[in-house]
């Protein structure tokens, strides 16, 4: 059986059903500035970093410059944080999975493109999170592997002893770019030819034996590390 030392969770769309909250406030703030976001643009933003979002707002003409893009992101993030803090909208099965892994002695991290102020209410509600890596903690965010590499470094855990749970294309790209086995919570595979991605329809379908079996499979096929 694989020596599973850590599970690194994305937050938005993986642990909590917050993507709809982000979309609500993003669309609202863009509309105030005379810009409408289509679904294709919104998909680009799923799991994206603050830098990516700020640059995209400049590209769309929502703001005049990058400084305005960061200000825009801060406004949206504050609204999202307030909504989530009221009652974190956990995905069915998410809390049970996190607690089961913790009880098994496996380290738990939340690695998210969201600001720390958005993540902390979720981590506090779970009560067993060992590490939070926010969008403010690494120079390059998802889809770059830096946030996941930072989490592994802080844990002192190797790539071949960890698994990432993600929902977005940006997040899966970050995990695989770092050589980490990934389980994608989705009904559509992010990268059809990548042998290090297991797709499941919901986090409720994931448990410790499945995670360990997938890590074993990835290690045998030398697609991690």
Automatic annotation (TrEMBL):
Entry cofactors:
Mg(2+)
- Which UniProt keywords are given for this protein, alphabetically ordered? Carbohydrate metabolism, Hydrolase, Magnesium, Metal-binding
**GO function terms (MF aspect):** hydrolase activity; metal ion binding
* PANTHER family linked: 6-PHOSPHOGLUCONATE PHOSPHATASE, HEXITOL PHOSPHATASE B
Q: Which family does it belong to?
A: Belongs to the HAD-like hydrolase superfamily. CbbY/CbbZ/Gph/YieH family.
Name-wise, this protein is: HAD hydrolase, family IA, variant 3
């Amino acid at each position: 059986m694989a020596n599973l030392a850590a599970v690194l969770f994305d937050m938005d769309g993986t642990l909590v059903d917050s993507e709809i909250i982000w979309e609500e406030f993003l669309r609202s703030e863009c509309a105030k500035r005379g810009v409408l976001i289509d679904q294709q643009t919104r998909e680009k933003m799923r799991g994206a970093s603050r830098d990516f979002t700020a640059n995209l707002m400049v590209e769309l003409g929502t703001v005049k410059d990058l400084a305005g893009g960061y200000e825009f992101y801060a406004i949206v993030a504050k609204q999202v944080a307030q909504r989530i803090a009221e009652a974190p909208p956990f995905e069915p099965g998410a809390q049970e999975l996190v607690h089961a892994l913790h009880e098994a002695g496996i380290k738990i991290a939340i690695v998210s493109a969201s600001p720390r102020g958005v993540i902390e209410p979720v981590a506090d509600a779970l009560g067993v999170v060992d590490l939070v890596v926010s969008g403010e903690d690494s120079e390059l965010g998802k889809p770059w592997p830096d946030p996941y590499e930072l989490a592994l470094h802080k844990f002192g855990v190797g790539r071949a002893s960890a698994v990432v749970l993600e929902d977005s294309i940006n997040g899966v790209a970050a995990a695989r770019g770092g050589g980490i086995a990934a389980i994608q919570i989705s009904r559509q595979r992010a990268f059809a030819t990548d042998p290090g991605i297991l797709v499941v329809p919901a986090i409720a379908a994931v448990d410790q034996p499945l995670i360990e079996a997938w890590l074993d499979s990835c290690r045998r096929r030398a697609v991690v590390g």
